[in-house]
Structures are given as structure tokens and as C-alpha cells.
Amino acid sequence: MDFEIPEGILCTKTHECIFQIEDEYYIGITDFAVEQLGDIVFVELPEVESEFSQGEIFGTLESVKAASELFAPVSFKVLEVNEELISKPELLNSDSYKEGWLLKIDLTNPSELDTLMEYDDYKSEVQ
Amino acid sequence: MEAKKTPLHQKHIELGGKMQAFAGWDMPIQYSGILEEHKCVRTKVGIFDVSHMGEIFLEGEDAVELLQILVPQDIYTLNNKQIMYGQITNKNGGIIDDLLIYKYNDTKYLIVINASRINEDLNWIEDNAKKERFNVKINDITEKFSLLALQGPHSSDLLDKIGIKKDSQPLYYNFREFELLGTTLMISRTGYTGEDGFEILIKNEKVVELWELLLKSGIEYEIKPIGLGARDTLRLEAAMLLYGQDMTEETTPIEASLAWSIAKNKTHYYNGKERIKDQLITPPQKKLIGFVMADKAIARHGYEIYANDEKIGIVTSGGVSPTLNVNIGLAYIDNSFKIDDKIYIKIRDKLHEAKIVKRPFVEKVNKIVR
Question: Is B45 helix (H, G, I), strand (E, B) or coil?
């Protein structure tokens, strides 16, 4: 797995992450999570405008092996859902930081970003 | 307790295998990816290390009598060099394990059993032999021998290429012994994928050499090593049951829809015979069925099944069918339901429609030599 790691990416212990593309915030899952899950075959994501608090379950990923719940890394409101991912879950396997992003979001409590881990800390935590 | 390693452990790591504990063994779950490996077995040929499986020889004048009380199959009908699929049943007809029974001759049989059940099986077999004062030597060779599976439409071509010529290869559910690499290989035409293929029993000291020979000779057929992940999706498409999920000590062969495999008029006594005989006359409350999901949701082991607001069953295996590109599963449901009936599976608090279908899900595409 050699995904390009987005600059300034912040991660959770449960492998969700937040990164920015052109000043917009996106939620995704880490390359380590993709590697562990293997072939991802089903993605369930919330609707645009729905809101979640930090730690709340906002969706599900299913790999061939198992189902995994997605936990909100921070509190957010959904601005856009990656619709392409619903029909092509394998985009997560090809690059979870690019065409495999999950949601474009608005932070509803930006101070929670401080509770997340930087990528290097995350890597040493999970490995 | 530290997980046991097969003699191929290091090879799996070198091939990029992701290792995971399975029934006390550290085994490769996948190498290149489950979907890719699955497709390789359906279209080309794949090689599996299944050395975690248990192998036990039963030898002696009472070997056949011992087997006769252990399983609802009729061992007398088995010919030399033939193999039979069966189940070891308890006094209530519940399944202690499922197995393959290989007949070498009247006084020598081999059974191949699930890794997770070796201790239970051994204790049960020894108890039965002792109680009946049978003259049988029970010889567990699991840790001295390795088992490889070669599965897929090019399996026979590949064996031919390494010197096991096609006209000498065993037919479906038969086995033969061959001399190769300075040792004896026991090759059976069996598998757990629904494809044509073979399983090869070889002593530990020689298995690395055989593995490498098969991988190298298989390059022209685009052979791949296959992990336990794809083994599970392949067997599910073929609707082959997995012990511990689709059958347990609480389910009988009749409930598990394995009536096809048992000897319905067996005169010899066997453990659980009374209950199984009863169920052959009066069908049990529950039965195992196959289903296909109407949407992309995946049913998993333990999910509940509903119809008309009533709970009618439970999923025992579920997942993707890479060949059919739909999601499939096996379940126990109330006996009144039949093929084409709609059922509803509860996945994360929502009901998802599914339909009961015929098993296997994937018909044998590639002809199996019988």
C-alpha cells in the first residue's frame, strides 16, 4: 500500500481520519485500515445535512471478511457524500485519501481536532 | 498458548501472506486479496496450505466397526481407495465434526477432520473404541504430515506436468498413492471449493519442496497461493458447510440438510441413530437453506431472520459471491419455508429482503471427473 499521505492528516484509534483538500474538510479511513480490511465490498454512508457528534456511529464498511462501523472522529455535518463509492466500494482499496474519500464535512466543534492524532503518532499507536 | 506453525509458515510470509490465528494455527488469510484469489481458483488454479486439518489413521481388525458406530454413513459400502463424506454424531444425533473417510483396505482407514475439533474428535473416538473394546490403533499424524489443496480447472494439467499423469490421476472422491520427490504422496480428488481439484498428503520434511515445485510448474497456468479467506468464499458459493458455523453439536445431519450424505437404511447401530431415524420420518422444526440478498447488504453469522414480523431463523454463514456478484448465505429457518420464499434479514436494525434459493449457489462450471 503506497497511498500518498495528505499533509496535516489527523487520525483516530479506530482508523477514521480527517484531511483537507483545498480548504475543505474530508473524512476518510487510513491506509492502514484499508490494508487490514482487504477487499472492501459495501459502504453505507449518511445523508447530506445529517449531523453527528464525536464518537457516534455514522456508517459501515464491509470487507469480504467482516463489517466495521465508522465512528465520527469529530462532530460534523455532512456537506457531500462520495456517491461513487456506493457503487464502487473498491475505490477505497485503490486510494482511500483520493477517490476513496467518504464524506465532505463541516466541523461543528473545531476544537475537537486537538483530540486527534497526527499520522506518525497514529502509526506508532496502531502498529 | 502460542499458535502452531505449518512447515510452510515462512513461505507464506515471503509470499506476502497475511497471517492470522485460526483454530490454534497461524495461517495465511490472504495473499494478493480475497477476490483476486477467489477468481483464480474459479478460472485457473490455486494452491492452499491446509496442513492445520487433522489426519488420523484408524488401523486394526475393528476399524470398520468403530467407524460404523461413529457416523450415520454405511462404511461397508466404501471400496478400497474410495472416499466418503460423513459426520461424527453424538448420542443425540448432533454433529461433533464433519469429515472425509478414506478406505485403504478393510483394516486401514484415514479420517481427515477439522483443525478446531481434533481434541474433541480424538477423545470421542477413543472413548467409543474403549467402551466397545475394539481392536483399533488410533494414530494422529496431524503434526507429522502436511496437506496441500490444488483447486481449479487447471489442477489436473498441473499435476500431469509434475509427473502425475492424467490417466493415473484418481477420479472424484477416490485417492491413490504416488512416489515423487523421494517420498509417498497420497493424492485425493477432493476439495472445499466446488471446483475440480486435489488434496495431497505429504510428510512435513518434503512439503516445502512440493509447494515450490507446484508454484514453479504452475506459472504457465497463472497459479496463485490462496488463503483461508478465499477458501471461505469459495466453499460458501459451493454451499459446503463450515463446522462451528453451519453445524454444531446442536444440529443433526438432517437439520443441516445433509440427509443426502447419510445411509437411510443403515442396519448397523450408530451414535444418534434413533433421533436421526425419527427426523427422516418426521422432518425437524428447522432446516438449513441457502439465500440470496436482494440488495448489496451482507448478512453475517448470527444475524436474525424474519418473515411476517416473526423471527423465523438465523444466519449461519454469509458473505459475497464474487462469481455471481450478489451476496449469499446459509441459514437455519423454520421448516415451513421453501425455495423462492422471501425472508428478511436484520442487518444493523434494518430488515433487508432475501430469497431462498437452491444450493449450491454456483453450479460446477468446470467438469469434475467422476
Answer: coil
The model scores a pTM over 0.90: yes
Distances (CA, A) of B309 to A7, A47, B57, B350: 51, 28, 50, 13
Residue B169 has pLDDT above 70, yes or no: yes
Q: State the Cα–Cα distance between residues A3 and A96, nearest whole angstrom.
A: 8
**pLDDT per residue as tens digits for the range B95-129:** 999 999 999 999 999 999 999 999 999 999 999 99
Q: How far is CA B344 from CA A61, A86, B72, B239, B314, in A?
A: 21, 22, 34, 20, 11
Spatial CB neighbours of B350, under 8 Å, sequence gap ≥ 6 = none
Task: Give this complex's ipTM.
Answer: 0.84
Nearest CA in chain A to B296: A42
The set of residues, in sequence order, having a beta carbon less than 8 Å from that of A124 and lying 6+ positions away, is none
Residue B72 CA, distance from chain mean position = 17
**DSSP class of A46:** P
For an interface test with A, the pick among B20, B22, B35, B327 (most A C-beta atoms closer than 10 Å) comes out as B35
Interhelix angle B228-237/B34-43, rounded to 10 degrees, is 60
